Amino acid sequence: MFQFKWKRLGIVAGLSLSLVVAGCGQEDTDDTANNADNGGDDQTETTANVSSEIEYTITGIEPGAGITQATDNALTEYENLSGWEQETSSTAAMLTALGDAIDNEEPIVVTGWSPHYMFAKYDLKYLEDPEGVFGGVEYIATIVRKGLKEDMPEAYTILDRFQWEPADMESVMLAAQDIDFEKAAQQWVDENQETVAEWTDGVEPVDGTPIELVLTPWDTERSSANVAKVVLEQQGYDVTLTPVDPSVMFQAIAEGDGDASLAPWMPQTHAAFYEEYEGQFEDLGKNLTGAKIGLVVPSYMDIDSIEDLEPAE
């Protein structure tokens, strides 16, 4: 087994997030729409107040995340974000700050992505991104180390066929609110035998062959990795899941320290890491489409675009 070389790579992301279900951004409320119609000086004053109230700060997540890099790019690309800063910490800290702001109906701008339970729990919206810094709709890809097809043809076939919908991932995350991810994944597999049968059709069982799946510490990826784990284990594999920073994920697969990953967000979020190691791994294509990243605000905030934010004084 290509067991991950922890000490040599030296970065471990052992976060335990509570992402349970995803959704898309909500439409503006009637009050928000009416306020926006006023336009003029009132709108300018409102956005200026919002920007100063949050001290020209975007509440971000982990420094190594792709969305963190994209937000840094936005701070450069948008002239009106001159003087703004991104405050990085952790996904859990961002979610706490978002919840506190909403409880007090205060302004906040966070880095967000979907699928994510925050859109189901709160009334949120993505800010429009006229410059396209955050890209459009994303997909999640499957990558494997070179030689996996020859070494583990059965696992390769299953991973190559693995494809599901955002609603499938959402159902696992929702179940994982009350039970652990492996049990939630087993529940999904039990309820979706036709889909699993398509992945495993004609695949011969193995006898305890070890395989390591590398993932990022988002619960979206914990969902896909655990479902793949259950399916591979049913075929006789001994599966290890290794959560790491995104850059390490690509390095692990490129260098053969991990066997496969169902976690890369493309074409924007993990583009830099993908390009750094391109050609050193095999890309099996999309396993989920319809993902998105961007700047997110509560719907009660009277702004709709990144360009509505005011430069720092």
Brief account:
The protein is of the alpha+beta class and 313 residues long. It has 14 helices and ten strands. The N terminus is likely disordered.
* Low-pLDDT windows of residues: 1-45
Q: Which band does the percent of strand residues land in?
A: 15-25%
**H/E topology pattern:** HHHEHEHEHEEHHHHHEHEHEEHE
SS-derived structural category: alpha+beta
Q: Enumerate how many helices there are, as a single number.
A: 14
CATH superfamily of the largest domain: Dipeptide-binding Protein, Domain 3
- Describe the global form: elongated
Spatial separation of the terminal alpha carbons: 56 Å
Q: How much helix is in the residues? A: 40-55%
How many domains would you count in the coordinates? Answer: 2
Please report the total strand number as a whole number. 10
CATH architectural group of the largest domain = Roll
Mean pLDDT: 86
Instruction: Give the C-level CATH assignment of the largest domain.
Output: Alpha Beta
State the CATH topology of the largest domain: Dipeptide-binding Protein, domain 3
Main beta sheet: 6 strands, antiparallel
Using the CA coordinates, give the radius of gyration. Answer: 21 Å
GO cellular component, one term: ATP-binding cassette (ABC) transporter complex
Main location: membrane
Subcellular location: Cell membrane
Protein name: Glycine/betaine ABC transporter
